[in-house]
Fold:
Amino acid sequence: NRLEKAEYTETSDIVIRSLQSMIIELEQAIQDLTRDIDDHIDGHPHLKRDRQLLESIPGVGDVVSRIMLCILHAKGFRSAKQLAAYLGLIPRMRESGKFAGKTMITKAGPARFRAKLYMAAVSALKYSPDISALKKRLEARSLKGKQIVCAAMRKLVQICYGVVKSQTPYQAAAA
Structure:
């Protein structure tokens, strides 16, 4: 954002070069940290196995598998429902008095994890048979766009939990 603003205003070349060098250093630091995380996962057989299991799920790639490994191994969830609640993916009815509100997700957990899960769910809606079947059922009930994606996020989290818990690769349950 700073670089973009500097390029559209009368900012000296020294400041622009400084911002560009900071961006390069930050990108390098991100790459180094990602490599360190991957090396740590590869250095522990149980983490490596869990990551392979997670990545067997359509829509789950490197980023989401890292996040789910972090969450699943840092917290002691006893069920997929607890995990979904932690991530703020549980539906909640908003109402007060005569106002019959809308059903929304609680958004109680870390937003940065939900942001990553959102994109994974969008991909899974297209490529995962279970989540595609969920989409068809929800469309038949007249649910729309983001409601379907939020339901897909929750389903994806439940599938991730099940795959790691059972220690078996993803197998589509939908016919």
Notes: Residues 13-43 form the longest helix (31 residues).
